Amino acid sequence: MSTQTKSPSIALDYVKTIGIVNNGFNGRGFANPYDIVVDDNGRIFVLNRCDPLRAAAIRVGICDLDEEYLGEFGKGNGTGDGQFIWVVAMALDSQDRLHITDEHSHRVTTYSTSGEYLSHWGKAGSADGELNGPAGIAVDSSGDLFIVDQHNSRVQKFTVDGKFISNWGSFGGGDGQFNLPWGAAVDADDNVYVADWRNDRIQKFDNDGKFLAAFGSSGDGEGQFMRPTSVAVDSEGFIYVADWGNERVQVLGPDGSFQLILKGEATISKWSEDYFASNPEEKAERDISNLVPELPAHLNTPYHISSQTEPYFWGPVSVSLDGKGRLYVTETNRHRFQVYQKR
Amino acid sequence: MINNDTALMAHLLRRAGFGASRDELEQYLAMGYDGAVEALLNPSHPSNMPDDLIRRYHVEQSELRDLPGSAAYWMYRMISTSCPMEEKTALFWHGLFATGYAKLNQARSLLNQVEMFRRSGLGSFEDLLVDLSKDPAMIVWLDNNENHGDAINENYGRELLELFSMGIGNYSEDDIKECARAFTGWTLGNAEYMSIRAAKDSIWPYGRIAWHFDYREEDHDDGEKTFLGETGRFNGEDIIAIIVKQESTARFVATRLFQFFAADEINEAGEKTVQDMMATYFSSGYQVRDMLRTLFHSDYFKSEEARFARVKGPVEMVVGAIRMAGNYQNPALGIEKVSNTMLYMGQGLLQPPTVEGWHEGEEWIDSGALVERVNFVAKELSDVRSPGVRSIIDRLAASADQGVLDPADLADGCLDLLGPIEVSDETRSVLVEYASRQGDLDLSGHQPGDEAEQRVGNMLRLVAATREYQLA
Q1: pTM, 2 dp
Q2: Are B361 and B465 in a shared domain?
């Protein structure tokens, strides 16, 4: 279901839900997914952050839109080669390499899309090129990387191999300033967008870091945000925002104008059908349950509503796009993603 | 010589909070005792580690699928709150209305119950019992979702009377049945599906689904009931209105509050205070806040015999030490291990052993638990990099004559700044003798982590191992 209160120039249709909880390193399913990228072959790479109890299963899972589980890779929890502690985001470069940020070990790890560990780089600190909590990551058309350096309140630009190019930003709420920024995206013109998480806005910069615009303010109204985590921009310039604190996704026009809201409408994934086929008594009760209930006033917040309303987004940390007009919304608390198609 | 105002305020903050650093203690001293009591009982502008920060870094505390992350989530709140009485009150009711994760497999709803204790725990006991009876975690914990109009389940009705209000011996078996009838239809949304998920510990397909209260009128027995001598077509609220009028309920609430906030044992002077609290219970319309005000202003509470008259519970022990050391002020890996430490000491948050809660007082201490307690606190307080320990070192240095402390000054200074803690002459002499082995301590020009600072850390570690530190 999408809420459209103005004449939109964009429409999105719900396609399907993919996912099921899977705590281990053992096949289909996800564990607190945090980000998605989709390659030109339609392979969907899902970055699983995992909780501390299951940290050994930190991994990238691969599936496709037909819900075929194609494999997974990772080397577990830690600071060794290819290992992770708190993964945040992922970017795919033109040479089929996945660059994955780790906000705890302050580094970027590179894997091939076939799951081969290639390298890691990053040094903790605040000097040029050093990182303190790398979060969002995006690649521009030249192949350079933009990394949101959250605790240093800046964006840093690197070559794809991690050589420092430039940076911008400082702590604060003014233009070009950040407060615990998270996600990043690059548009077709190589402009850079940053989900300025604790300032409840999206900031737009040119490729050299010149401030261009800021969209949004704190709140739950249309065009307002509560801790936006992720941003993506399609070929027409529409801006998709994971409005995490409001447990929703918003789409803005290229000029930042509000377009529509998605709240989520998850359905049973193929993998979930397999589960219910083996647990028919659970399915029978589920089928006569109201999974979109009315809640008492003290639970009437986006977080509580989503904790009790399974179809809705809960913990929508990431929005991702493919080249075919599809939007992928990653829900870390529900171990799944929902797919929408642009009309 | 310990200033009595300071000692009394420290006593109040150990009971109405988790102890206090010297900075906190001075803030409350500036209010005066009466002002401090009111500030604690009427918290305004509470602040604590924000949920958005916790959820961003701890996926397990955002989803709250499992016990360790959920207990850690509450730990953060206790560690970082500016209103410790709010958390202490929630902990009190959590122990009294003991609801455990193991049967529920639903931590979010258990934490919603804790939030209800924060919201209602200092208000009317009548309202609190109504909220408790509508709490989905309690409903599943004591099977009220199985309490139907045509087939009652007495479990909740029985415990409501026995463990949550009047106490055994003050009602009949018939009263239990009538009570249970009145609560038929009090259930949770999608009760059948949620019951299956809870019983199977199902997290599939998409994680937990939190619970909410649901009243099923068609499943409620609307017939006439006779309860404690009164007759009517009672619903649950009517039963609670009768319960809270009983003298036995007043005694039950006053006694349990006294034992948690004042002393493990009730002596003659304590009994007088309990009776005063009972009188307040009735005169205030069952207000818990007013009963606690009566307690905190009582001669007994202010007397020296009330000080250190309770064994610290593991949660008080761990949270108090972390707050004193100033650690975990931001989300950090490892907090779930800290909450596990409390479990090893005998008090796992959100996992009371039975509906009767924990056995408190001296039962907290056995040889295994004691080792855990001492080791944990010693580690927290001896880390001279911790901000709270650094503050202690700075205060010691500022208090010293030209930065030099003799062994007695070092021991007394540490005892003072960790409490003040009143210790026996024997304990003090051990501390002083230990300090004497390295002579006077020169803190002038001290640097983070240097040998002089480490000597302070070692003394704090030793104080943590004293008998007196185990008491609140």
Answers
A1: 0.96
A2: no
